């Protein structure tokens, strides 16, 4: 079946990047008890149409970039970079049976980045250094420009009870039509994914198009889920008996995910040397900060690139990476109009289309204008667990509504409030209470069953 014609998303991308550059991020200070931080790079490029004449002239500003002919040419395609990191088969994050079909394996994508190390000058430096070390892409070159930072995010474990680190996402834009040669670490695959594959059809095809509306129910983004064993989050790793008991009582968790197509000819794999020269990074960073032309170039091993051997696998975007992606894409939606107090804006904003089809169930019935909140929290495989989460989730729903009220009032969220952190804490607080109730109720029923069974066997 043919697909509806797409509107250019270049104007939406331009508005989003200008907005990110002019909006200060919500920065979370590291507590004294947990100073660890990390940073990732969200790298965006615009691929010109095939055989379109391009120029080597660099844009002097973000506004000038979006006025270039090859950027505005029909068929120009904005893309974002994801990495697929190869892991050991024993590691459930690297690959596992997804249930999508016989022999289909599930792999996850993320952004280049990593932990902040001693000597890093800040979060942006960390993101640039980690990108260089991991894939050999030097964001300090004048072919790239930093746009800004998205809101910090908290990485927690044990259902939100323990803080692991603070994660800072930074957005970069490639200013040239050709991507510089890369040298990925062994087992790392690059995937340049068109933003139109992640944006809802109501945005990419135009909400007023009758033909577009015909395809809304069957096109993009393609939502799926990632199943995680709840015992891996709730029980000690080396306690087999306790893990089996938790698995029996609680079941599994399903996190919303977007399926990433792997049919684009930008997937490459190399076994070449992934080491980086720290001194070279420092020198090049200093040159960029001084506004001079970088003179240092990493030797490329592009000649050693070989096509990646395809397996029958399905790439999925989920968790923190999905949340950061939705934070970026939310800037590409029209601002929601003001609505009367007490009225939900879920049908009045493009933000509402960034959530899974059953998001109202997954997010416990809250409005869906804050997609990075409502699209990354899990549902449990047992319906009674989800019911009790809803019962104890009043505070979580209030947090999301508060964020939405802030968006309607000022066009952006209140920077004084850590909305994502508050939502994370209140949601998992509801989960912990729900799990206690569920386990107690199950224990009561088991005891009643044993008592009734003993009475039936010995006293009848």
Automatic annotation (TrEMBL):
Residues 35-216 form the Nudix hydrolase domain. SUPFAM superfamilies: Nudix. InterPro entries: CoAse, NUDIX_hydrolase-like_dom_sf, NUDIX_hydrolase_dom. The keyword Membrane applies. The chain crosses the membrane at residues 434-458. The keyword Membrane applies. Pfam families: NUDIX. Keywords: Membrane, Transmembrane, Transmembrane helix. Residues 85-121 are annotated as: Disordered. This is Nudix hydrolase domain-containing protein. It comes from Somion occarium. The lineage of its organism: Eukaryota, Fungi, Dikarya, Basidiomycota, Agaricomycotina.
């Amino acid at each position: 079946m043919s697909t509806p014609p797409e509107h250019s998303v270049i104007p939406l991308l331009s508005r989003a990047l200008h907005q990110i550059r002019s909006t200060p991020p919500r920065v979370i200070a590291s507590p004294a008890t947990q100073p660890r931080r990390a940073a990732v790079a969200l790298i965006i490029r615009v691929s010109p149409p095939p055989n379109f004449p391009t120029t080597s002239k660099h844009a002097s500003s973000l506004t000038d970039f979006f006025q270039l002919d090859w950027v505005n040419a029909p068929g120009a395609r904005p893309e974002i970079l994801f990495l697929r990191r190869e892991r050991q088969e024993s590691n459930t994050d690297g690959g596992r049976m997804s249930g999508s079909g016989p022999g289909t394996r599930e792999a996850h994508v993320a952004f280049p980045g990593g932990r902040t190390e001693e000597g890093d000058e800040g979060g942006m430096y960390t993101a640039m250094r980690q990108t260089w070390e991991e894939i050999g892409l030097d964001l300090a070159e004048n072919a790239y420009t930093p746009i800004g930072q998205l809101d910090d995010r908290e990485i927690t474990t044990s259902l939100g009870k323990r803080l692991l680190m603070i994660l800072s996402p930074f957005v970069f834009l490639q200013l040239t039509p050709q991507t510089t040669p890369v040298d990925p670490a062994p087992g790392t695959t690059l995937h340049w994914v068109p933003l139109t594959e992640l944006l809802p059809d109501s945005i990419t095809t135009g909400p007023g198009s009758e033909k577009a509306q015909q395809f809304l129910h069957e096109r993009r983004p393609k939502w799926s889920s990632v199943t995680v064993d709840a015992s891996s989050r709730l029980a000690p790793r080396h306690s087999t008996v306790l893990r089996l008991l938790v698995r029996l009582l609680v079941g599994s968790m399903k996190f919303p995910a977007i399926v990433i197509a792997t049919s684009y000819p930008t997937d490459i794999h190399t076994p070449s040397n992934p080491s980086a020269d720290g001194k070279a990074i420092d020198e090049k960073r200093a040159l960029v900060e001084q506004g001079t032309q970088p003179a240092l170039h990493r030797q490329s091993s592009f000649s050693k690139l070989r096509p990646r051997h395809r397996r029958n696998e399905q790439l999925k975007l989920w968790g923190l990476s999905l949340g950061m992606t939705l934070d970026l894409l939310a800037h590409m939606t029209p601002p929601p109009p003001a609505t009367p107090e007490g009225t939900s804006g879920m049908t009045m904003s493009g933000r509402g289309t960034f959530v899974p089809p059953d998001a109202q169930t997954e997010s416990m019935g809250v409005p869906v204008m804050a997609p990075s909140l409502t699209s990354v929290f899990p549902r449990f495989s047992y319906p009674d667990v989800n019911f009790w989460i809803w019962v104890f989730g009043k505070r979580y729903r209030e947090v999301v509504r508060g964020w939405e009220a802030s968006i309607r009032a000022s066009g952006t969220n209140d920077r004084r409030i850590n909305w994502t952190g508050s939502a994370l804490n209140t949601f998992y607080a509801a989960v912990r209470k729900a799990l206690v109730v569920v386990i107690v109720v199950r224990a009561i029923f088991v005891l009643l069953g044993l008592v009734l069974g003993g009475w039936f066997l010995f006293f009848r």
